[in-house]
Amino acid sequence: MEKAVTFGDSRLVYDSASGLPLRWEKEDEALTTFVFPEPFVSLELNGISAANDAEQMIAIRNVMLTGARSELIHDEVKTVSEREKRLVIRTKIDGHWELTTTFLYCGDASLAVSVDVKTTNDSRNPVLRAVRLNLGGFGYRRLDEWELLMPGYIPELTLPIDLHRKLDGCEDRAVFGSRKKDEPGNGTSIMGVYHAESESAMLSWWMSDMFPAVSTMTLIKEEEQLRRESVVYCPCELERGESISIGTFYMSRMKGSRLDALRKAADAFRIYVRSDSQALAGQKTLKICELHIGEKIGRKTFDDYDQIAKKLSYLKSLGFNAIQIMPSFPFPSYSVYDYFNLDKTYGSERGLKNLVRTAKRLGLKVIIDMVLHGPLEKEPASWRMPPGEYEFDSPYLTDRTGWFSRHESGDYARTYTRSFDLANPELRRHISEAIAYYAGSVGIDGVRLDAQTWNFFPNWRPEGGRKPYESIYAGFRMMEEIRKEAKRHYPDLIFYTEGMGPLAAKYHEFRYNYDFHWIYPALSPVRDERGMSTMFWNPASENTLSWSDLAQWLEEQRTTVPRD
């Protein structure tokens, strides 16, 4: 039997026995009905952390999925205010877990959904890996009328670029989004569809400072709909009666143009607006040239910093007003050796300091590229480093073993480096002191923070009793205290990173994203003798992006930036 709660001119329908939500529908309008696949919420449990020496995402073997057997325990409707109404549904799933799912209607055609997970298991402390959220109904039964609306995500590259392609023109089981883009850190998280004729949008997004989600949209033609799956990572071991609140998932119906709809959705990101955003206006004129010494991927531009210094006047004549110094290549490259050993990290302390002084005389700002992943233990096979003697003996490997994340087995978490746990307070202080050293003793004007979520791991053996999940997004959250300390002494110091999601905006003045690289081959044929990465290039979409579609894609992406 079905039960329904009225929210304004819409109603949420759920099953009275299982408590599972079924659909959120608007009265007299079937066009924008959200459908909840059964189950809406499921849990990933137990399993074993897999050996991981390449990818930066969590890899788990033998995980168990639960949530199919649900029983309603309690439901309650509460009117919070004239505009707000709340439905709380408490269910027991598979006998050992309780879910409290809260649907908050705010009177603006949006539902905010929060989920609390609690274990009732008497016999052992189960491991919660992730919470899956499934939402359907996008384009339901009218695939020929709806188009994708996913700002900031790479378009489908296996077809010619067309931002207004209708869903029925895409391949069955096509997957949109990325299983390697976390939200809301590196992805906008806004995913949905747009109906041009009626100027209607169905959008969804995820928000949390602690728990990242990885989301995809899958086209299922036999069901005549697009489905969203968001996997929210919250790894921890829960004791009986202990609960965890994982964040907020939003779904909304919008009216107006594509941009109108995105602006309304992005209003939710106002909590991420920087308090010093107005003071940054003068820094937005930076034109940065990235430079390095040594051989990188078989190519060498400069042998030393003296050669770079001789080119600075020329770079300034080209319009650059800042330079960014990368780590020394081919070693340590994008790994950490010792933040205070400039000879090893950047190739030459003397040369680097002389270059900074020369740049300052010419009126150029200097930004240093700072790696946060961790140190190398051996040569990565894919790096193709030229013959030479490389010392994989970072002092951190032996002297600071508590600074690294570990799996449940006790083994270190790794990508191509041993992975730092950026939630470690002592490590954070060390990084903060290194930034102060670069600003004070070297004289740099800013820091580019490399891939702050590359170490996408929980730490199952943290010092200080932290929860394992606190390490995953620590690379972003640590900047609150690091920036504050740095700005006390160097108020004009620049911080920027490569994450483009709203959470990255909360902690950094400036951001950019390598995902924009898809634009170049989509606009014009590009060839590289070293080979082309299929991450950003596909012959089907090469040279098919129009300038008008590019302008629209960029404008939609910018619309999701948190604003006052």
From TrEMBL:
One of its GO terms (molecular function) is alpha-amylase activity. GO terms for biological process: oligosaccharide catabolic process. Pfam families: Alpha-amylase (PF00128). Residues 270-564 form the Glycosyl hydrolase family 13 catalytic domain. PANTHER family: ALPHA-AMYLASE FAMILY MEMBER (PTHR10357), NEUTRAL AND BASIC AMINO ACID TRANSPORT PROTEIN RBAT (PTHR10357:SF179). This is Glycosyl hydrolase family 13 catalytic domain-containing protein.
